[in-house]
């Protein structure tokens, strides 16, 4: 979360290193972002969450979900307080339309690189939307730390 134009102001989750992937549902837990670090101007509205997977330092898939953070009470929507009241904010995740980008990478130990850094990278990826379960609303909470990824 945070301004796209100022990467140093973004609040994000930690990097998790996983080993021994298998087919099926992979559930992960992560602490929620520190809401005190989110700039007031970026607390509400549309944002995105990106999940990326890499193998030996090469990103091979990126999944993005659009998220809208908004008050659920009509009076707060019309007259939002100066300081965000996160306990009254709902996070609506457009989970039915993820943006999935796949990158060709070098899966073996040879020195050949399938994705050279630079403009050629654009030629080696495929972007699509995939059908998944419908939109859901998640409320901000210190205990809302679950996420899951399905590996096909």
Specify the biggest β-sheet. Answer: 6 strands, antiparallel
CATH architectural designation of the domain at 40-142: Sandwich
* Fraction of helical residues: under 10%
Uncertain segments? 114-124, 129-152
Overall shape: elongated
The secondary structure category is mainly beta
Name of the CATH homologous superfamily of the domain at 40-142 = Histone chaperone ASF1-like
What is the strand tally?
Answer: 8
Number of helices: 1
What percent strand?
35-45%
SSE series: EEEHEEEEE
Top CATH class of the domain at 40-142: Mainly Beta
Separation of termini? 28 Å
Task: Tell me the Rg in angstroms.
Answer: 18 Å
CATH topology of the domain at 40-142: Immunoglobulin-like
The whole-number mean of residue pLDDT values reads: 72
Structure description:
It is elongated and about 60 Å long. It has one helix at 74-78; strands spanning 24-29, 45-55, 58-71, 89-93, 99-103, 125-129, 136-139, 146-151. 3% of the residues lie in helices and 37% in strands. The two termini are 28 Å apart. It has a domain at 40-142: Histone chaperone ASF1-like (Immunoglobulin-like, Sandwich), CATH 2.60.40. It is mostly beta strands and 152 residues long. This is Anti-silencing function protein 1.
Task: Describe the structure concisely.
One of its GO terms (molecular function) is histone binding. By secondary structure, the protein is mainly beta. 3% of the residues lie in helices and 37% in strands.
């Amino acid at each position: 979360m945070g301004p796209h134009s100022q990467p140093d102001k973004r609040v994000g989750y930690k990097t998790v290193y996983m080993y021994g992937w298998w087919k099926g549902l992979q559930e992960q837990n992560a602490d929620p972002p520190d809401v005190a670090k989110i700039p007031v101007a970026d607390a509400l509205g549309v944002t995105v969450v990106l999940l990326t997977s890499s193998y030996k330092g090469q990103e091979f898939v990126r999944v993005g979900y659009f998220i809208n953070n908004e008050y659920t009470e009509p009076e707060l929507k019309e007259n939002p307080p100066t300081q965000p009241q996160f306990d009254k904010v709902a996070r609506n995740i457009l989970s039915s339309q993820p943006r999935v980008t796949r990158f060709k990478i070098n899966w073996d130990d040879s020195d050949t690189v399938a994705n050279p850094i630079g403009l050629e990278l654009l030629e080696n990826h495929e972007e699509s939307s995939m059908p998944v379960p419908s939109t859901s609303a998640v409320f901000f909470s210190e205990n809302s730390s679950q996420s899951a990824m399905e590996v096909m």
